[in-house]
Amino acid sequence: MTKTGAGSPSAASAQLDGGIDERALQAEIDRIGREISSAEQPSAVRHPARAIDRRAMALASRDDELRIALFRLIDVTPACRTAEDLGRHLASFAGELEPSRGLAAALRLADTRAGRTVLGGAVAAAVRHTAHRFIAGETPHAAAGELGERWREGIAASVDLLGEATVSSDEADAYAARCAGTLDELAHLARAWPAQALLERDSLGALPRANLSVKVSSLTAMLRAQAPERGVADAATRLRPLLARARDLGAHLHIDMESLDALETTVELALELLEEPALADGPSAGLVVQAYLRDSPVLVERILTWAVRTRRRQPLTVRLVKGAYWDHEVAEAVQHGWRVPVFTDKAACDRNFEVLTRRLLDARPLVRVAIASHNLRSVAHAIAWNRLRGGRDDDLELQVLRGLGDELATTLARRGTRVRVYAPVGDLVAGMAYLVRRLLENTSNESFLLAQEQGVPLDRLLAAP
Amino acid sequence: MTLGPFVNEPTLELRSAANRHALRDALVALDARLPLGVPALIGNDRGSAEGFQSCDPGTPDRQVAHAGVAAATAVNAAVEVAVAAAPTWAGLPAAERARILVRAAAILRERRLELAALEVRECAKPWPEADADVCEAIDFLEYYARGAIELEAGRPLLQAPGERNTLRYAARGVAAVISPWNFPLAIPAGMAAAALATGNAVVLKPAEQSPACGLALVEALRAAGVPNAALALLPGDGQTGEALARHPAIDTIAFTGSSAVGREIMRTALETSTSRLKRVIAEMGGKNCVVVDADADLDEAVPALLYSAFGYAGQKCSACSRILAHEAIAGELERRLRGALRTLALGQADDFATDVPPLIEAAAQARVRRYAALAETQGRIVARGPQAPTVGWFCEPLVAADLPLDSPILDEEIFGPLVTLEPVASVEAACAAIDALPFALTAGLFSRDPAMVAAVAARLPAGNLYVNRQITGAMVGRQPFGGNRLSGVGSKAGGPDYLLQFVEPRVLTENTMRHGLPLT
Which of A103, A168, A234, A295 has the most B C-beta neighbours within 10 Å, making it the best mutation to test the interface with B? Predict the structure, then answer.
């Protein structure tokens, strides 16, 4: 077997932090990456339906026009009141495509009411099917079985409550109440789960079984990018009781990151509340760093400085993600003439992900670290760095998204790595924005999963970005 | 000098705390200089700066500027000076005038923080919108500078053997620019820049509510190289504007403001067209409607409607005044709007947290309150914002419903934070109601059906139709702006056709036959 591909270091290998040799790191990444990859079963064997999904995704990612029409159709599906109405929308979107796409038959079908009903019914079923791939259930209760099953397989979860946009205080209250109820329910469910040492403890102490992710934009209708203090003040009235509840239940509360417009509000709010004396002993809580942001290293330093100062009994968990609002951030910046806040070069973004992985892992025990990625290289890099730095396997957590990282999660769990699945819960209407984001990401030409699906050689997948 | 392609001036990224601090500092510096003095500027003469005041609408006893009133004699003097200066200015190559306008843009860019602060104080424009207005003023200067260079080349004509045909555009002469206070820099900058770029001399009469913004514009243009004689500033009230519009030596009147004043200007323009036909470019009011179809994404529609109806307290000509919602979702929309209105922050324009600032003046507050009282009598208020502060010309944001079809609230421009919500049986019914209005400025549609979007676009007469977004915030070069019917003459500011209003076409046809030979 040859040494790794394009990105492999040349003869003079550089030293990284902690005196670790770049070549040694690459060798370890190669070894771990290959192990994971060979342990992952081809998905078609286990989930024939998923193979069909993936073919559809691959098709969509090759054809931008079709992809956009498809996503717009999915987006409007829950707003259509009848199958016929949905069929009419399908015909309307199809009418925007080049006529040469074999859609002529479908369009002819849409000429009659009965035909539209048939078409609409088919679309609704397809969208439901796709939604089920990414969404664990309509309610926490409905997802309970799956959460328990995964726990028994050695996989933890963080539940995310999908919701409509919050435009009023009543809606923010309702979301907070759902979160409170879900915390209760998860804590109750988790009591019945069997012991799983790897999922429940790291070298810093106990890890909660119940884990809920919340969104600040759902906790307040007063989020204003130009006045973060307004959103902080309003959301604090709802987040503070949730944090106290999580503390009392021994649950973990993770504060998700959204678009850049919400970043300052989210960070201010989380750091401010977690510093309050009443919350000094708990709960276990977390924040997210999006590596696609050019300024993400600054945010990491800000969090670490805060952690040095506050020394909470339960260290903050930092979830490192690539970031899911790339298209939005680029479009918004270009429309306003602003500097694009995200990396537009995939390799630069991947490199930043690795720099931040190392920075965060090396900052332990100030923070706990969760590396959330489906990119085999990023995952192998985190595991490799942890090992080379002498870290214990249980002091690193890996996270994946339901519907995208399921096989990876299974493989990682079997290898004895702690892995947590991000499991959205909610109805289809509420889930549509999430669903479209996931689909966009998954069909983007830069998607790691797509590259893997298309058979890009392992050498290239594991090469340094 | 060749100018690069036009790009919109980037607005300040206000999610950056550093930018917010810079603006606050600029405001502190400005406050220390208040009140500013605004004299009439005619040629090299400066008039008195005592006559009337502009005040901070949020704190009415804070005087922002003292301005002189340009009386009839000053108007006559300004026009005479402009008439004399016009041929020299028109005689410059378009590229030379463009260079001056681009330099003026650079001056505004340099002063952008201070100018945004001035808009905050003089017009109670909240920061994001004040900054955007400064950027739009810069955009107009840059955009028309380029357009005028292009226009100078004329347009190609058919040619036949033995003759040579050329079409050129010449400046019309002297333009009177009469501008409103709601975009206190951008709108006068746009009208003046278009006139100047094409070689006209300009006499500017800014709104009496915003004389200091008018002065800032004239100062920038003059400092950039527009000769003093080719650009006059006449602060004053309606009488000053009327005297200017009636002056027989005026060739072009560029006006943005109310429909009543605009139509009066058109009438008197004809009466006073004794030696030339005055051209009136009028951009006037609207009664802008947004249609929300049954398949709309209300998560997007609600915030967009709030901003369209209540941003700058509804005081934009493009603001949303009527919401026509498909009956399948009208109840849900009403419920969500009711909750959403309570989240709006009424406050001072200088507070970054403010969603709805005060109205411009006491008379505006009284007018909107009259409409609100009528809405309560004729129908019902289904949603209201938080209570208005007592100091400052605030009005609480309202949504009214169940109004009789002949209610004036449904067809008059209110220009304040009052919007109506009506259920409709279909989008077609909504379009019919909109089509029955005398105005046609902006309109909005929330729909996720491409066929419906196409049908509504074909059906509505609005000058600007916005789909699945807010209906305000037109950008130069991207959304040429202006209305049809009683809303305006369709001249489309910030678009490729706008400059044609400021020029007269001249065709030269030369016989090139000599001794039976076509010599072209």
Answer: A168
B231 in Cβ contact with B131 (< 8 Å): no
Out of A76, A96, A336, the one facing B295 most closely (by C-beta) is A76
- Tens digit of each residue's pLDDT (9 = 90 or more) over A152-188: 999 999 999 998 899 999 999 999 999 999 999 999 9
Element (H, E) at A422: strand A418-425
Cβ separation B294–A81 shorter than 8 A: yes
> Which chain B residue has the Cα nearest residue A263?
B15
Categorize the per-residue pLDDT at A440 as very low, low, confident or very high, splitting at 50, 70 and 90.
Answer: confident
Question: Token pair for residue B27?
Answer: 């405001």
Task: Tell me which residue in A72, A92, A338 faces B451 most closely, judged by beta carbons.
Answer: A92
Q: What element of type H or E holds B464? A: strand B464-467
**Mutate: best of B21, B135, B299, partner A, most A CBs <10 A:** B299
Against a cut of 0.90, is the pTM above it? yes
Cα–Cα distances in angstroms (integers) from residue B221 to residues B9, B104, B136, B189, B216, in the given order: 18, 5, 15, 9, 9
Answer yes or no: are the C-beta atoms of B477 and B143 closer than 8 Å. yes
Judged against a pLDDT cut of 90, whether residue B516 lies above it is answered with no
A8: its two tokens = 């492999």
DSSP A58-106: HHHHH-HHHHHHHHHHHHHGGG--SHHHHHHHHHHHHTTS-TTSS-HHH
**Which of B339, B343, B450 minimises the CB distance to A95?**
B450
A7, pLDDT greater than 50: no
**Cα distance between residue B90 and residue B94, in whole Å:** 8
pLDDT tier, A446 (very low <50, low <70, confident <90, very high otherwise): confident
The CATH number fitting domain B288-467, selected from 1.10.10.60, 3.30.70.1140, 3.40.309.10, 3.40.50.2000? 3.40.309.10
Q: Give B253's contacts (C-beta < 8 A, 6+ positions apart).
A: B175, B176, B178, B245, B265, B269, B278, B279, B280, B281, B282
A167/chain B closest Cα distance in angstroms: 5
Query: What ipTM score was computed for the predicted complex, to two decimals?
Result: 0.95
| Interatomic CA distance for residues A296 and A360, integer angstroms | 12
pLDDT tens per residue across span B355-385: 999 999 999 999 999 999 999 999 999 999 9
**Closest residue of B to A264, CA-based?**
B15
Element (H, E) at B202: strand B201-205
Non-local (6+) Cβ contacts of B439 within 8 A are: B259, B285, B286, B287, B288, B413, B483, B485, B486, B487
CA distance B238 to A156: 72
Are B326 and B293 in contact by the 8 Å Cβ rule? The answer is yes
Amino acid A3: pLDDT: 38
Range(s) within chain A of domains with CATH label 3.20.20.220: 136-462
Q: Which fold has domain A136-462?
A: TIM Barrel (3.20.20)
How far CA A162 is from CA of A134, A217, A323, B388, in Å, comes to: 11, 12, 18, 35
Which pLDDT tens digit goes with each residue over B261-274? Answer: 999 999 999 999 99
User: Which CATH entry fits the domain spanning B21-284+488-506: 3.40.440.10, 3.30.70.141, 3.40.605.10, 3.90.1200.10?
Assistant: 3.40.605.10
- Residues in chain A within 8 Å Cβ distance of B343: 167-169, 221-222
A59 band by pLDDT with thresholds 50, 70 and 90: low
CB atoms within 10 A of CB B79: 23
pLDDT score recorded for residue A164: 86
Contact residues for A232 (Cβ-Cβ < 8 A; gap 6+): A265, A268, A269, A272
Report pLDDT digits (tens) over B411-434: 999 999 999 999 999 999 999 999
Q: Are strands B288-292 and B279-283 parallel, antiparallel or unpaired?
A: unpaired
